[in-house]
Specification:
This protein has helices at 18-25, 34-47, 65-73, 83-91, 108-117, 127-140, 175-187, 208-226, 252-262, 276-279, 312-316, 403-406; strands spanning 4-7, 10-13, 16-17, 29-33, 53-58, 77-80, 99-101, 121-124, 144-151, 173-174, 191-197, 233-235, 269-272, 283-294, 299-303, 322-324, 333-338, 347-354, 361-364, 385-390, 393-398. By secondary structure, the chain is of the alpha/beta class. α5 links the parallel β7 and β8 (121-124). It binds pyridoxal-5'-phosphate (PLP).
Amino acid sequence: MSHFAYRDGMLHAEDVPLPQIAAAHGTPCFVYSRAALLSRFEEFRQALAGRDTLLCYAVKANSNLAILNLFARAGAGFDIVSGGELARVIAAGGDPARVVFSGVGKTKDEMHQALVAGIFCFNVESSAELERLDAIAGQAGKRASIALRVNPDVDAKTHPYISTGLRSNKFGVAYAEALDLYRRARVLPNVDIAGIACHIGSQLLDPAPAAEAAEKILALADRLAADGIVLRHLDLGGGIGIRYRDETPLPVAGYLAPVLEKLAGRKEKILFEPGRALVGNAGVLLTRIEHLKHGEEKNFAIVDAAMNDLMRPALYDAWHDILPVRQAAGATAEYEVVGPVCESGDFLGHARALAVAEGDLLSVMSAGAYGMAMSSNYNTRPRAAEVMVDGNQIHLVRERERIEQLFAGERVLP
Ligand SMILES: *Cc1c(COP(=O)(O)O)cnc(C)c1O
């Protein structure tokens, strides 16, 4: 069941008609469905039932505190990529002991912060990082639990910008080097080898690459065990794809089945790090048409949301469905749906057939992941408000930024 659906010709989020949100909180506005978020989480939980697992939500997909809090209360762990994300997880009531820290460029300060917080594991991505972490842990009088993020060199068959598991990517340590690096980790005084990690890319629809990666990770875990290095957990990353347009993603259980089959009978705890799959279809970007412009070759629907609010179309040429909030019977025209930002790449959708008028509301679908989280203030545009709907209740979960906030930290020369 979709939590964003038409009722009597009006698009709703759960039981709330979207114009009610625009009236209360303005546009552009991200709207999330609490039920959609929780039902996705539940789908993962059920797919993993009966196994020793930790589901670590990838915070970078959408780091709003209300979303983190919802998942924390549902029992989630978190996958973070910065000290800022760790601070958010803690502020939202998340348990640091369920946090894994990924990313290729962890600073000394971030390492220290995470050690003091007592995170579950550092996913280490290079030998330089391993040595630095050992030193920082020593200074802090802590032991750092680590997994090496290994690059299994499988082709995830997704967009090159979101493919991360190939040898040519900046992520992870090479498969062939992993054994040596584990041997090095074993003799470092302030490092405790806990597991192994991989993450091969994003928006994956075919489970075969993930199963192939799992197989390679298992082979390495067994090779390590033969060397006396026994791992406590296997982290298989995130990347599970969702429907944006006409994709037909498997249900979570179906996607995970080939992976879990490879893991049958293993003693290690299993971690997954889904981001998009948990939040992507649980949010929309609500925007209002400012002007309709009929050019010589194209028609433009100029809306009050822009690439600074939702960067995915400009960055990856990504498709988002764009629906009129009120279904109209009138004739449709083909529109370029664009924002007011001074870039030709500032579009939300090309050649969309819409029956719309100035002042109408549009809903940009599947905007829950990598929407607000990637937004910026380009063109000195305050970032959008965020709202979470729960049944017929509307909760403002982030205020719209105010213009004064945008330059509050700036100074002119005396
Ligand atoms: C981005 C990322 C994820 C989440 O990816 P999704 O495609 O949103 O599921 C998980 N793990 C790591 C290490 C990541 O970088």
